[in-house]
Specification:
The chain is an alpha+beta fold and 627 residues long. Helices cover 55% and strands 12% of the residues. Strands 11, 12, 13, 14, 15 and 16 form a 6-stranded mixed beta sheet that branches. A 5-stranded antiparallel beta sheet has the order 4-3-2-1-8. Strands 5-7-6 form a 3-stranded antiparallel beta sheet. Helix 26 runs parallel beside helix 27 and helix 27 packs across helix 28.
């Protein structure tokens, strides 16, 4: 017999003792603090409950703003399918509080309330309810026996993939959202080290913040077996995290636990969570992680360093000149405070590389800054993949091909889901002539990071480089459907140009230039087209880029490639030579770019290949000629 009454209204059943909300026998997952808000409103449905009362009883001594209460009530309404305008279940009394207004039946026996809940409780097992130290809420902390049906299912079905959804920020302070994002990033890094588990990139999960989709729908879109959900409450020097594991194939709640720590031990906390999640998935797997940093005790970290790191991650995500520069400053602050902060060193290197990628820094200078940071990252913790993966790219872009490929292999040994290492290994396979294997790796990359533009670009570009033009068009169209805001008009322009479909190529060029508001190059295209046809358009655009280079940095490779499409060999080779001096990133594909075909037979091009690829130049030239 339950000590607490079971509540039933419409098709919903709340069993406070089992800490469960269900509808028609199907459990609905709610964060513990949100479920407690609902239970409190129902248990006091005979009167108005003020916001202050909810703050005092649900959150206790934790200092929060009223917006945290509003967010929790909004999540309750979302779970119930309620509408703040129609007030089917919860009525809002303006400026005062809330009242639960639906008819509720109470029973002492959950079996009487809903016969299907007996099955649900049998599957859920006995859970212990405890009071949180920083917020007085009931949370699920353990399952008293190990062989419940959910765990049997988890053990019996092989779990190969997982995604960590954005952590809910329960502080009610939007300014703390960056901290939740940063901790999600660290947790993904830790989970990615579990052998045999593919973990989705953080950037591809951002779209599911406050999503209306079910866990099964989200898992289906991401192509994963399991989801990790969580909520974060940070109060002063303390943090509390509630983490849940959900089977995306069945929408069944598998496991939950609350963690608390002071902020100086947050890295240890993330390691503990990753280890516990891995142990729930497959304890035998976790026997092999003794050499993984997830089980290494980490010295206390100055909280200001973690704050700077998480702010840097948030700003780097913006991928704008201002965002990248702020990120660089934040990562520098983090490593100045904590010189052994390996993740911060790795992200600093990525930020330097990104600054050059978008054309706001000299590539060679950025690469050297990145190399210094990456060596620091490896020195601080050689067991994290980020240092090896980043170093691989620096080595690849500076012509150290064998060393680069070895770095990528080491990164993937440590983290088989490392997106940049998957991309790097695909490049190594292409340079070795293993085209099909290279494309397979890039498809794996798209599976790990299906909704981030940076990781969806390589597949269509590689298909273009190896001459599979129709497949490249299909791949671009697939990305446009999956990532609608990311339009690869320039890739389509390359492909159509190579196919001799000049009108379509120029139309894609126009769309690209209009999208970026580049009226100067757009005018040059139209003037050149009127004067000299498609090749005239390319010549005029190349000349406009040269003029721009006199005022601001323009990648010389872009100028050379545009002259090559115009059929102007001397000018193209001059700017490609300049690109080797500047260290342009695109030079690593020099032997493969189809739009450089007009210069391919010139001895000066052969000399460029020698300078880029060194002793492997002849081999790579042979491979690229057979594409």
């Amino acid at each position: 017999m339950n000590q607490h009454p079971v509540y039933r209204f419409d098709d919903f059943v709340i069993d406070p003792e089992a800490w469960q909300l269900s509808r028609d026998g199907q459990e609905i997952h709610l964060e513990p603090v949100v479920l407690k808000v609902l239970i409190y409103l129902i248990s006091h449905r005979d009167r108005l409950v003020t916001r202050q009362e909810l703050m005092d009883t649900v959150w206790g001594d934790t200092v929060i703003s009223e917006s945290a209460v509003s967010q929790a009530v909004a999540r309750v309404r979302k779970a119930l399918g309620d509408d703040s305008a129609t007030h089917r279940y919860i009525e809002t009394v303006h400026s005062k509080g809330y009242r639960f207004i639906a008819e509720v039946r109470e029973t002492a026996d959950p079996a009487y309330a809903d016969s299907s809940s007996v099955k649900s409780r049998k599957k859920a097992g006995h859970r212990v309810l405890v009071a949180g130290a920083a917020m007085v809420i009931l949370v699920v902390v353990a399952v008293f026996w190990a062989r419940t049906p959910e765990r049997d299912m988890l053990r019996d079905e092989q779990v190969q993939s997982l995604a960590v959804l954005p952590l809910s920020n329960l502080t009610g302070d939007p300014e703390q959202a960056y901290y939740a994002d940063g901790l999600q990033d660290i947790l993904i890094t830790e989970l990615s080290q579990i052998p045999g588990l593919r973990v989705t990139s953080r950037q591809s999960t951002k779209r599911y913040r406050a999503s209306d989709l079910t866990a099964a729908d989200i898992a289906g879109e991401l192509g994963v077996d399991l989801l990790v959900e969580g909520s974060l409450l940070r109060t002063g020097a303390n943090i509390e995290l509630t983490v849940q594991l959900v089977d995306g194939r069945s929408d069944v709640h598998l496991w939950a636990k609350q963690y608390s720590s002071d902020t100086s031990h947050v890295l240890d906390l993330m390691s503990d969570i990753a280890f516990d999640v891995g142990s729930e998935i497959n304890p035998n797997r976790m026997m092999d992680v003794s050499d993984v940093s997830a089980r290494s005790r980490i010295d206390p970290v100055e909280p200001r360093a973690v704050d700077a790191y998480t702010l840097g991650v948030t700003h780097l995500d913006q991928f704008t000149p201002k965002g990248i520069r702020i990120a660089i400053d934040q990562f520098k602050t983090a490593v100045a405070i904590e010189p052994d902060f390996a993740l911060a060193w790795g992200q600093l290197a990525l930020a330097h590389a990104s600054e050059a990628l978008i054309g706001f820094a000299h590539p060679r200078e950025s690469l050297e800054k990145g190399r210094v940071a990456l060596l620091k990252a490896i020195e601080a913790d050689e067991r994290l993949s980020i240092g090896h993966s980043g170093l691989g790219w620096v080595q690849l872009w500076t012509g150290e091909l064998d060393a680069a490929c070895e770095s990528f292999r080491e990164a993937l040994r440590l983290n088989p889901s490392a997106p940049f290492a998957l991309h790097g290994e695909a490049d190594c396979l292409m340079l070795d002539g293993h085209m099909d294997e290279s494309i397979t790796r890039l498809r794996e990359l798209a599976a790990v990071s299906p909704f981030w533009a940076v990781h969806n670009l390589p597949l269509p570009v590689h298909l273009y480089m190896i001459g599979r033009l129709d497949e490249a068009i299909i791949a671009v169209q697939d990305v446009h459907e999956r990532v609608p805001h990311f339009k690869m008009h320039w890739v389509l322009a390359w492909v159509y140009w190579q196919q001799g479909r000049f009108d379509k190529a120029l139309e894609e060029e126009r769309l690209q230039l209009k999208r970026h508001g580049d009226t100067v190059l757009l005018a040059a295209l139209e003037d050149g087209l009127a004067a000299g046809g498609p090749y005239g358009a390319m010549r005029a655009m190349a000349e406009a880029l040269v003029a721009r280079a006199n005022e601001s940095y323009v990648d010389p490779f872009d100028i050379g490639a545009t002259y090559a499409r115009a059929g102007m060999v001397d000018e193209a080779l001059h700017w490609l030579d300049e690109a080797t001096r500047h260290g342009s990133y695109e030079l690593i594909y020099l032997a493969f770019w189809p739009h450089l075909d007009p210069v391919r037979n010139d001895p000066r091009y052969q000399d460029l290949l020698q300078r880029v690829y060194g002793e492997r130049a002849q081999e790579i030239m042979r491979i690229s000629g057979a594409r």
